[in-house]
Design a protein that fits this description.
single chain, 217 residues, 9 helices, 2 strands
Length: 217
């Protein structure tokens, strides 16, 4: 599949196959790693065998940052280091016994596979045309709108309705045959309770309680 992409839009998991794709992927590596001064020719000669082995841009950048066991490779590239020499040194740990390259740390795909996945996702995310509702659907829609409008009406009326619901719940807890108590019942109950407060006279001179002192003597 022949598709020309901007290096800034190159999919990181795509394994480049054609010469144009390799050129674009090399430039994508430089952009993402911030290697503006990299020698593109030398870098291309270094990474091309890795691309042919199924490695992608994401895989190369991951390998430059971490070893196969997951440990960090070290500090990022400095301005004094040459980009392709720096990447060559980082990729040494990804040789299995020095004989062959390890499996890429990030699984790759072809550009055609990426394009099909991208188009499928785009179709799934497209807005679907609105279907015309039938009579049952319109009735359900109106009923739903009525419930929403009921929740958005006057707050005072909502508070009153909530109070009525509370009263109904409390009334349902009464013993059958009995009526709910009223304020008159409460006042009558309080009047039947006699509260006796003990009297302790206090002397106006010293503030002592004569009765208490006499009992103590």
């Amino acid at each position: 599949m022949r598709v020309r992409l901007d290096p800034r839009q190159w999919p990181g998991r795509v394994v480049p196959e054609t010469e144009d794709e390799i050129d674009t992927a090399v430039e994508a590596v430089c952009l993402r790693a911030n290697w503006a001064d990299a020698d593109r020719t030398a870098l291309r000669a270094l990474v091309r065998p890795w691309f042919e082995a199924g490695w992608s841009v994401d895989a190369l950048l991951t390998a430059a940052d971490r070893r196969p066991d997951g440990t960090r490779q070290g500090s990022p590239k400095t301005h004094d280091q040459v980009a392709h020499d720096f990447l060559r040194a980082r990729l040494r740990s990804w040789w299995e016994g020095g004989a062959r390259r390890s499996r890429p740390p990030v699984a790759g795909m072809t550009l055609g596979q990426w394009w099909r996945v991208n188009r499928r996702n785009a179709r799934l995310n497209e807005p679907r045309p609105r279907r015309v509702l039938g009579a049952p659907g319109e009735s359900a829609r109106e009923a739903s709108l009525d419930r929403v409008r009921a929740r958005l009406r006057d707050p005072v009326e909502r508070a009153r309705e909530r109070g009525r619901r509370y009263t109904e719940v409390l009334d349902s807890l009464l013993v059958p045959g009995l009526s709910p108590p009223t304020f008159d019942d409460s006042r009558r109950l309080l009047a039947e309770i006699q509260v006796r407060v003990p009297r302790h006279p206090v002397c106006s001179r010293c503030g002592c309680r004569p009765n208490v002192l006499s009992v103590a003597a």
